[in-house]
Design brief:
The complex is a heterodimer of chains A (318) and B (406).
Chain A (H helix, E strand, L loop, with lengths): L3 H12 L4 H9 L10 H19 L4 E3 L9 E6 L8 H9 L16 E6 L5 H4 L3 E2 L5 E2 L10 E2 L15 E6 L8 H5 L5 E3 L5 E3 L9 H5 L6 E2 L14 E3 L11 E2 L5 H4 L6 H5 L5 E5 L6 H8 L1 E3 L11 E5 L1
Parallel strand pairs in A: 1-11, 2-15
Antiparallel strand pairs in A: 2-13, 3-7, 4-5, 8-9, 10-12, 14-15
Chain B lengths: L1 H13 L3 H24 L17 H15 L1 H8 L4 H28 L21 H29 L5 H27 L12 H27 L6 H32 L5 H8 L8 H19 L1 H4 L6 H15 L1 H4 L10 E2 L6 H29 L9 H5 L1
Helix pairs in contact in B: 1-15, 2-15, 3-5, 3-7, 3-8, 3-13, 4-5, 4-7, 5-6, 5-15, 6-7, 7-8, 8-9, 8-13, 9-11, 10-11, 11-13
Classes of the chains: A alpha+beta (318), B mainly alpha (406).
Chain lengths: 318, 406
């Protein structure tokens, strides 16, 4: 069945063969939400995007539209005892997922944050250093050290070598919640949970209202304040429609567990690059997968469970 | 008859003295500025604002929330007029409806201003896009549009009836009025839900939000209306009775008092245990990690609100129509701060992962905000002028406006 959008798209493409970018962008304005597209419409959208991206970045860009495989439920586990805070995962993620890497504030987007926690909070000299609170009540020891509260940018620690002696590290990114608050607040249902687990965004349908960013308890979402800065030579041409394809100004983006890789049996970039093997990824429905084994045998916890978000991102320690 | 209404109305509101044209011209300058920064925001992107991925809403959402309250505040005229049959209010009800229309339009322009992709707003429209019933923003857009339509219909049907000299059809008119009263509460309640339903933001996540929104709205809204009424009394031949202004003042005092009480309750409850969930409020009142950007805002709002409340208590201010605008303006500005910058911004500080960062509105944001307010006042001036013209009988069916003006 031919839809209005496809007709309009074809018409504009035929009318202006020279200016592919403008014509394609025009047609993109009228396409449906990806979740509701027929297979034919998905193909049209894919062809349109591949044409635009290939021209824009001067190389053959593929936009994958493969669907979830039945029997697959993606899950992630991270060993916080092993993490050395080297942030190779952050770098690999930016390169794999075509994040903006400009210099102005707001042009640099990273989906993974490695939180650096001071061991000094519980150091010997602070241990018995209390103070009297109001009305004569004594507060003892380090009871009042505000743990895990830092100024903006302090997570961008730059030490000579990692791991540092007095620090522990806690990487976070999108938790791919089973009950995602971001999905509930989206007024146009452009962000939703895919059947194999990840919460994805159709960047072409997002209106940039930022409600999802307010709802996320893990600060996993980033806003494209301007057109992303993505140098041609650094652009990763293997993309997925719901994954790492280049985004546009004014839309929200976040981690999607490298759908362009994981839908084809590969590991996410962060798992692949981790030098200490702290990151594990696999099928939660398969009892033999690494992540299932971790859940079965290790001490596991999730972040902010009191909010009933049910993350599929687990932390564990040996 | 409708055609002549439109033409008489238009001709009347476009004519005015030097003062009128100077006022409208100044507003137009700001509107042009607004259009320019709107163009910037949609070519360069929201990077021209002070917003970031940490603090992704600021001045725009703050004004949006506040103006929803002003729109809802119009019900403080409609309710006494139609439910309690207050004589003085009844004569000027339509002016409140005109204020509601202007405020809702301003809210909608602020919605446009804060979005990353306003060109895709049609994605929210049912049938051609997707309307999500699970989203509070969806509900908010729905109730705001409904309120705009209701006030437009009720207000202009009344004016049209006055214009033609025929009585209004009570069977249609009164049910619409009652619906609009309840609807006014709904717009502000849903706006409170919009921000309060996020457990990710402890500063906002409490059930006091809707009632606090309503009380501050019913203080700020009528405070503005009192000022507008006094200006109308001074500059036009329209006389607004003291009884109407006094009742509105009473409503402002009560609601302002409750609003101050709610703020104090919040402070005690949050700071007694002083959990990390109180960090947002602590940042607002005293600053956090050495960052104190909002502290002057908060304390000036406290001074303005409490000061206004005290002045309202003094009969010399309350009953003196030349001094009354002072506490009204103080209450209005104080609530603008408390409900705007003082509520929206600390919700983001610290961020859910504990980052303390600050927000400074840029020139673009201030110009946009001023421009949208100017746009609102532009519309309000026209609507009030037309409504007053009809109430005074200067616009009437079969009478040429030029003749009537003499």
């Amino acid at each position: 069945m031919l839809s209005v959008s496809s007709l309009m798209g074809t018409a504009t493409l035929m009318a202006q063969p020279g200016d592919a970018k403008a014509a394609v962008e025009w047609a993109e304005h009228f396409q449906k939400n990806y979740r509701l597209m027929t297979p034919e419409e998905k193909t049209e959208a894919r062809v349109r995007l591949e044409k635009r991206y290939s021209e824009e970045y001067g190389k053959k860009v593929a936009v994958d539209t493969s669907d979830a495989t039945p029997g697959m439920l993606m899950g992630y586990a991270l060993n916080i005892r092993k993490c050395i805070g080297c942030r190779r995962c952050v770098k690999a993620c930016v390169e794999e997922n075509n994040q903006s890497r400009g210099t102005r504030p707001g042009e640099r987007i990273e989906w993974i944050q490695v939180l650096r926690m001071e061991r000094g909070e519980f150091s010997d000299e602070k241990m018995n250093h209390g103070y009297p609170e109001g009305l004569g009540i004594q507060v003892g020891g380090n009871a009042y050290s505000p743990a895990g509260q830092v100024l903006e940018g302090q997570y961008h620690y730059e030490p000579q070598a990692v791991p540092e002696k007095d620090a522990t590290y806690m990487p976070i990114a999108c938790m791919q919640c089973e009950k995602p608050p971001c999905v509930k607040v989206c007024p146009v249902r452009t962000t939703y949970r895919e059947p194999d687990g990840p919460v994805v965004i159709d960047y072409n349908w997002c209106i940039g209202c930022k409600m999802c960013m307010g709802a996320c308890p893990y600060w996993a979402r980033r806003f494209n304040l301007t057109t992303p800065v993505l140098p041609k030579e650094d652009m990763n041409p293997a993309t997925h429609y719901l994954g790492n394809r280049p985004r546009m100004r004014g839309v929200v983006e976040k981690c999607h567990w490298c759908l362009q890789r994981t839908r084809h049996g590969r590991y996410p970039a962060c798992v692949e690059v981790c030098p200490v093997g702290a990151r594990k990824f696999g099928n939660l429905l398969d009892p033999e997968s690494e992540v299932s084994m971790v859940l079965a045998r290790k001490n596991v916890f999730r972040l902010k469970t009191e909010l009933n978000t049910f993350p599929k991102f687990f932390y564990f320690y040996d | 008859m409708l055609m002549s209404f439109v033409s008489d109305y238009t001709r009347y509101v476009l004519k005015g003295g030097t003062k009128f044209y100077a006022w409208m011209g100044t507003l137009s300058l700001f509107i042009v500025g607004m259009l320019y920064v709107f163009y910037l925001q949609n070519t360069d992107g929201l990077i021209v604002t002070g917003m970031t991925s940490q603090i992704h809403d600021g001045l725009y959402l703050a004004n949006l929330v506040f103006l929803v309250g002003v729109a809802a505040g119009a019900v403080t005229i409609v309710f006494p007029a139609y439910v309690y049959h207050h004589e003085g209010m009844h004569k000027v009800t339509v002016l409140g409806e005109m204020l509601a229309i202007s405020a809702v339009i301003m809210v909608m322009v602020f919605v446009f201003a804060h979005m990353g992709r306003p060109d895709r707003l049609w994605h929210m429209i049912p049938v051609i896009g997707i309307y999500s019933f699970s989203s509070m923003l969806g509900w908010d857009v729905l109730v705001l549009n409904g309120y705009l339509v209701l006030n437009f219909v009720v207000g202009f049907y009344f004016l049209y009836a006055k214009y033609t000299g025929k009585p209004v059809n009570q069977k249609i008119f009164m049910p619409l009025v009652y619906v609009s009263i309840v609807w006014a509460l709904s717009i502000h309640t849903v706006t409170a839900f919009l921000i309060a339903v996020n457990p990710a933001r402890p500063m906002w996540f409490h059930s006091m939000m809707p009632i606090r929104f309503i009380t501050t709205a019913f203080a700020a809204g009528p405070a503005l209306i009192v000022i507008a009424f006094l200006i109308i009394r001074k500059n036009t031949t329209m006389w607004i009775e003291d009884s109407a202004i006094k009742l509105l003042t009473t409503i402002v005092i009560w609601c302002l008092g409750i609003a101050i009480f709610l703020t104090m309750s919040e402070i005690v409850i949050e700071f007694y245990a002083r959990t990390e969930h109180a960090n947002g409020l602590y940042y607002l009142m005293f600053g956090l990690h050495g960052l104190t950007g909002l502290v002057p805002w908060f304390w000036s709002s406290v001074v303005l609100m409490v000061g206004a409340f005290v002045l309202f208590m003094i009969p010399a201010f309350r009953n003196d129509m030349t001094r009354l605008p002072i506490p009204c303006a103080m209450a209005f500005v104080g609530i603008w701060i408390e409900k705007g910058m003082g509520l929206i911004v600390p919700g983001f500080i610290p961020s859910p992962i504990g980052e303390v960062t600050e927000y400074y509105p840029t020139f673009v944001e201030w110009l946009m905000t001023l421009g949208i307010w100017a746009f609102g006042f532009f519309i309000l001036t026209i609507l009030l002028k037309g409504a007053i013209g009809i109430l005074l009988g200067e616009i009437k069916f079969g009478v040429s406006p030029a003749v009537a003006a003499k």
